[in-house]
Amino acid sequence: MSKRNSTKKAVLIGLIAVLTLFTAACGNNKAASNSKTGGSGEEETITLNMMHPWTSPNVDNDVYKARIAEFEKQHPNIVIKQDGVPSAQYKTKLRTLAAANNLSDINVVWPGADLAPLVAGSLVEPINHMMENWTSILPETALSGFNVDGQQYAIPTKQNFVDIIYYNKEMFAQVGYDQFPETYDQFIDAVTKLKAAGITPISLGNKEQWPLQSSYISIIGDRFTGSDFLPAVLEGKAKFTDPEFVKALGVIDELSKLDAFNTDANNMDSVQGQDYFIQGKAAMHISSATVDGRVRINNEEGDKFGIALFPSVEGGKGDPKKSAGVLQYGIAIKSGLDEKKKQAAEEFLKFFVNEDLYKELIRNGVVVPAKVEIPEDASPYLKEMLALTGNGTSPVFDSLIPTQVVDVLQNGLQALMMDHTTPEKLAADVQEALDNMN
Amino acid sequence: MQTLRGTKLAIFIGLLPALIIYLGIAIVPIGLSLYYSFMDWNGIGAMDFVGLKNFTRILSDDIFWLSVKNNVIIMVTGLVGQIPLGLLLALLLNRGLKGSGFFRTVGFMPVVISSVMVSLIWGMIYNTEYGMLNNLLGMFGLESWQQNWLGDSRLSMLSISVAYIWQNCGLYMVIFLAALQNIPDEVNEAAELDGATGFKRTFRITIPMIRSTMMVGVVYSISNSFRVFDLIQILTGGGPAHQTEVMTIHMYNSAFMNMRYGYGSAVSILILLFSLVVITLVNRLGREKDA
């Protein structure tokens, strides 16, 4: 009898457990559907999820966050729930969420090769119908990276140049260079002399692998091959194994054979690489224009640093005045939102990316893609940056070339630094990765 | 008989919630991975059935075999590092030293703190320019011993192994300590009467007494070594140039960084197969020895 009782009890407890599980699940569903469709009252708040990579203490990140806060203040019925993901992991998370068809309502996206799969999977909403908000301030070139087959998918917030050489004027003067070298031979000469003087010529933080690819190969490649090369490679009209591109890879080989980089270059992240340079432990650092905020604009000792572009190379097909630029932080809306959320998201997009945002960014020394007037009180460093980068833009490697191929190049560049491969072998590997895609 | 059957039903119903959750987060994903591993899929677009192409590609991929080699390094160094070290610490603590409670806590600490912290700590120790290890060597005038611990491909896996052993040996210490304390006093006393003391007692009496626990430790250490991911991901990210990549990192990079979900799933299936094979082998060996 007592056995029976305990059996009954066990069954009951089991049932209760199962029921609890189901009701919990149902409860969740109900709550979720409530917030979506519930009530037509005016008090209703709409919550929009937004994923962005604005976590580091860069000047532009603060501007973006202030902008979001301002939007929430002016639209008390719309809440922007932010998901800040460190930029090194951001693209990975974006792709993973995209694969799970689980994107946030508002996303920060990159143009070209990064945007293509999102568009192919119809995960982001075209915004053609609201373009009149921006056509007057944004030139065609600023929008084209986010335009696929005539459909516009995102609006960029900033223009970044990835190949700015920051250099320590005092150290260069010490080895007899009052100006930054203008030719590659002089550049190598300066590197050799710096090395001989006991100074690390270039600080590099390449643990995340993109710096050597994005900040170095984009522009070194362009100097040798010219700007038509990467599109031609994608169309199969040129190959990475062409001698010009191999020569570009050879530059990294030559620099690492000269011990131009700090020994732990492949174990430091990009911010640590900047720190080395800012602390005066190296004579040069190659990174994006955004870093100027840390190096010079917000640095009391900023005037001891200069900026330059990669020097011209002998027999190079590229224009030595060009800088490798990319449009960043396109704001895109997820497709398939319900009407109310979609309206709120469009409202946000209109508010977030407008002339005020661009002006605020410029005031803080950030280059923007829009035609807005540069304020009188803009930092002289920004004006110098604009002058340096205003003579033509060349493509950034990973904005055109698919991720799988970029990965092979990035790992190969590290292998090149460790003397595990040669420029010729690496060029062949990269080409093979591209061929394997189709 | 009837009551017994009723109990079984009750047990089943009681287990059901846990079973559903377990199926959902363990069994179903493994099945899905198997399914994806036959596909060419970038995660977003359409899937193409490619049969065993992912597997043939993996098996002819040098980087994959490098990651297997690194897994073997972690497995072997883990075994010869963690188990003896854990046993040694357990034996020391079992002697009833003063403050053994304190040392037990200290020894177990690395197991409790998150892998992220462990990685950051060891990243600072190994740092070439301002790292503790190189500074220490410099202080003793051993500049020639200073190394690029994580960047030099001859050293990087061993450096990682040291951090890995440090992180995990506390766990084996606690497991072995519990086993040691379960050895009846009579056995030890009898051994002493027969003149087995010191090393003799340790090797002839103590260790054989906890043999089964040590086997559990060995199996756990092996299966753990196939799962290592976060430590390496944060210390080196598998770099430079794939030199410290283990299979899990290879899988992560293929699937999530390069959007080759089919290929990545195939790698995960191989990880499962590898660990099953190795653990079956070890179990078989252990049983033969028992017999």
UniProtKB/TrEMBL annotation, chain A:
Transmembrane segments: none
Entry keyword set: Signal
Keyword Signal found: yes
InterPro entries recorded: Bact_solute-bd_prot1 (IPR050490), SBP (IPR006059)
Pfam families assigned: SBP_bac_8
Keyword ATP-binding: no
Database matches in PANTHER family: ARABINOSE-BINDING PROTEIN-RELATED, DIACETYLCHITOBIOSE BINDING PROTEIN DASA
Protein name: Extracellular solute-binding protein
Organism: Paenibacillus brevis
From TrEMBL, chain B:
Membrane topology of this protein: Multi-pass membrane protein
Transmembrane segments: 12-38, 72-93, 105-125, 155-180, 261-282
One Pfam family of this chain: BPD_transp_1
Localization terms from the record: Cell membrane
Entry keyword set: Cell membrane, Membrane, Transmembrane, Transmembrane helix, Transport
Annotated ABC transmembrane type-1 domain residues: 68-282
InterPro entries the record matches: ABC_transporter_permease (IPR051393), MetI-like (IPR000515)
Family to which this protein belongs: Belongs to the binding-protein-dependent transport system permease family.
Protein's UniProt name: Sugar ABC transporter permease
